[in-house]
Amino acid sequence: RKKTRIPICLDTEGAQIRTSFKKRKFLKKNQIIKIDNNLNSNYLSLYPNIFRQIKKNFILDIGFENLKIKIIKKKNNYFLGKVISAGYLDNNKGTHIVNHKIILPPLTEKDIKAIQIGKKLNIKHFALSFTNSAKDVLFFNKMLPNTYKIFKIETKNGVKNLNSILKLSDNILIDRGDLSKDIKLMNVPSIQRKI
């Protein structure tokens, strides 16, 4: 704040699955990996907690390095996944489920804590990542009245519900990187023009 007049914007993680993994590791094709429900374990975990929603044959597309893992077995407290496309597994990487839909809250617990800190520090600009619906916009608007809000369009649902999102939003940001994970890369320019 001493160095610039440009306002600080708190950018939330939003409704995206992310990895929890201790050390960067290259996974080879056909390798079997354990996925558990404990963020402090040495195995791969996912957050927010979507453990109950994941089923056999779900395909996880992790990060931007082409790593894809197919769930091949489900136990009470862990899954087994088979690497179907080799790549690096790392911590805090965005994860898309390619072949199924799951329900995620618009904000993570980490987001809510960050917003509380932001309010204490008098931050007035906030961005909602992975805005999927008008319901998400209403939630964010209610949570942060009298602030400058940016709604990020980076999912297929965000594009599908664009008109209802726009009616309630003052500011839209197109995140082409994450959007390209949810729709085909070749469709991004035409979707961007539409938005």
Task: Provide tags for this entry.
195 residues; alpha/beta; 7-stranded mixed β-barrel; 30% strand
Please explain how this structure is put together:
The chain has 195 residues and is an alpha/beta fold. It has helices at 109-120, 134-143, 156-160, 162-168, 176-182, 188-194; strands at 9-11, 17-20, 25-27, 32-36, 44-47, 59-62, 67-74, 78-85, 87-89, 94-97, 125-128, 148-153, 172-174. The chain has a 7-stranded mixed β-barrel. Strands 1-11-12-13 form a 4-stranded parallel beta sheet, covered by helices on one side. Helix 2 runs parallel beside helix 4.
Write the layout of secondary structure elements.
Blueprint: E1 9-11, E2 17-20, E3 25-27, E4 32-36, E5 44-47, E6 59-62, E7 67-74, E8 78-85, E9 87-89, E10 94-97, H1 109-120, E11 125-128, H2 134-143, E12 148-153, H3 156-160, H4 162-168, E13 172-174, H5 176-182, H6 188-194
Parallel strand pairs: 1-11, 4-5, 11-12, 12-13
Antiparallel strand pairs: 2-5, 2-10, 3-9, 4-8, 6-7, 6-10, 7-8
Helix pairs in contact: 2-4
Brief overview, please?
With 195 residues, the protein is α/β, with parallel strands linked by helices.
Number of strands: 13
By secondary-structure content and strand pairing, the structural class works out as alpha/beta
Unreliable spans: none
Radius of gyration, CA atoms, in whole angstroms? 18 Å
| Cα distance spanning the termini | 32 Å
Residue share in β-strands = 25-35%
Mean pLDDT: 92
- What is the approximate shape? globular
Helicity, as a percent range: 10-25%
Please, how many helices? 6
**Oligomeric state as shown:** single chain
Strand order of the largest sheet: 2-5-4-8-7-6-10
SSE order, one letter for each helix or strand: EEEEEEEEEEHEHEHHEHH
